[in-house]
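Subject: for your reference before the review

Hello V.,

The reviewers asked for a structural picture of the protein, and I figured it would be easier to keep everything in one thread rather than splitting it across files. Below is the amino acid sequence we used in the manuscript, unchanged from the supplementary table.
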Amino acid sequence: MVIPSFYTRDDDVSAPCTRSAPERLGAGESPVFASQLSGVGNGRESAAEHQTLGWRESEIISYLFLGDLQDAGRFDGMIISVLPDAIAAEPKRTIRLPFLANGRASLDSTSALIDAALRLRMPVLVHCEEGCERAPLTVAWFLKTRRGMSLDDAYALIRSRRPIVKDRRSWLGIYNR
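And here is what came back from the structure prediction:
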């Protein structure tokens, strides 16, 4: 798999990207939600909406992050969008690999690109619109095919890092090409 040239430096492509990792929460700490920071929140949003407001990208394994469209705008590293259409809010350097555009072959191609970037110790963000369905399934597929995990274990890991994730492995049966 070839990494696009705008993600590599001419002087040394093997050097890891420098990126400050998101702050890790200590035991017993919970994320600060946007409504707590801005004073917004009239109590009418659902628990899921309330949680989604405050999530940032989530590091699933070293250098591999899962997130939403807003995370893509502030991420310093490779950005892979699994959205079906280009979105104006995405950075220009976003690599678009639409989710299941070519069935499971799309997941395999995306997994190969993630694997190549991680070998270079390059931070990778896989995102969909809200970071809870398409992108998590893509990361779960990567963990299954490239790291030898079962889908059960992959989803357990992903949900432990990003609780808003919904298990959508049933979508694989629809795209059994």
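For the response letter, the relevant points are probably these. Residues 104-119 form the longest helix (16 residues). The chain has seven helices and six strands.

Happy to draft the paragraph if you're swamped.

O.
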